[in-house]
C-alpha cells in the first residue's frame, strides 16, 4: 500500500485544484487570492459585469500578472504576445528534446 500526499485547493467551498506538489498548490491558492482582490477592485470601481465574467476575467488577469505589469509599464500588447508565443515555442522545443 502506498501513501500519497495530495494538496487540495478549495475556493469558496469548491475544490479547484489538486496536486502532489505543495509549492504548486500554494501558488494556485495565491493566484485565487489575487483574483478575489481584482474582482473586489473592479466591482469597487463601479463596473457592472456579470459575476461569471468577472470571475473569469479576474482569474485570467491574476494568472498573467507579469504580462499585465509589463502592459501597465507601456509595452504594447503585440510585442508582449509575440514574446509569449516565442516562450511557448521554446518550451515545446525543450520538451521535444527530452522525448
From TrEMBL:
Domain of life: Bacteria
Protein name as it appears in the record: YebG family protein
Biological source species: Paraglaciecola psychrophila 170
Lineage: Bacteria, Pseudomonadati, Pseudomonadota, Gammaproteobacteria, Alteromonadales
Amino acid at each position: 500500500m502506498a501513501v500519497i500526499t495530495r494538496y487540495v485547493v478549495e475556493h469558496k467551498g469548491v475544490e479547484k485544484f489538486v496536486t502532489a506538489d505543495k509549492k504548486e498548490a500554494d501558488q494556485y491558492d495565491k493566484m485565487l487570492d489575487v483574483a478575489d482582490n481584482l474582482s473586489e477592485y473592479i466591482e469597487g470601481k463601479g463596473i457592472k459585469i456579470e459575476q461569471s465574467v468577472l470571475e473569469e476575467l479576474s482569474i485570467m488577469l491574476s494568472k498573467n500578472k507579469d504580462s499585465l505589469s509589463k502592459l501597465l509599464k507601456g509595452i504594447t500588447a503585440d510585442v508582449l504576445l509575440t514574446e509569449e508565443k516565442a516562450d511557448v515555442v521554446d518550451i515545446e522545443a525543450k520538451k521535444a528534446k527530452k522525448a
